[in-house]
Amino acid sequence: MSVRDEFDAWAADGRDKGMEDRHWHTAKHALARMPVKEGDTVVDLGTGSGYALRALHDTKGIGKGYGLDGSPEMVKNAREYTDTEAIEFVVGDFDDLPFDDDSVDHVWSMEAFYYAPDPEHTLEEVARVLKPGGTFYCAVNYYEENVHSHVWQENISIEMTRWTHEKYREAFHDAGLYVAEQDSIADMEIEIPPAEEFPTESWETREDMVERYRTFGTLLTVGVAP
Predict the structure, then answer these.
(1) What is the band of 16 on the pLDDT scale with cuts at 50, 70, 90?
(2) How far is the C-alpha of 156 from the C-alpha of 169, rounded, in Å?
(3) Are the beta carbons of 134 and 128 closer than 8 angstroms?
């Protein structure tokens, strides 16, 4: 199954809103860090429901937002959820971003980068479209050190890329982006039941669940265009 088919099905089932709710626990903290100024142009790779751009529009006054997704159904839903002309949604591929060189102030991606068929080239595309000093905020929960995420590949037909912290830094550097920061953002909002309620349907032990959300959380890597 292609990325498009997979996420068209998710959008049709309303799972785009479910992703938004889960991702928001950590995404909001990463979005708050972005050095976005009023009037800036921001691109969201793998926009899903478009929640990140709507948040940046409401809190930081972005001038223009472009939400790119490989799923036409996701794009259709995002348009329906959004009531400002400052944000547009387009169907597109990570390997060929439909933006001019040095035309974008910031790029954001939450839980989508690892679906890129050629992630190194995607980083080159991000570096190409960013203006000098522009940033790429890349947030992922699926990464090598997060051992609890490894089983996710078994539940999705799309081949995903699972990098280490170091590999993310190396790949950003190789694409021409300086790595300004890299850290993990803990999910402090998800409810973790008391130990006597384990095992649950998803977790054998409470310790595993705590480690997944409170320790590993979301890996954020921030690149800056020279």
Answers:
(1) confident
(2) 26
(3) no
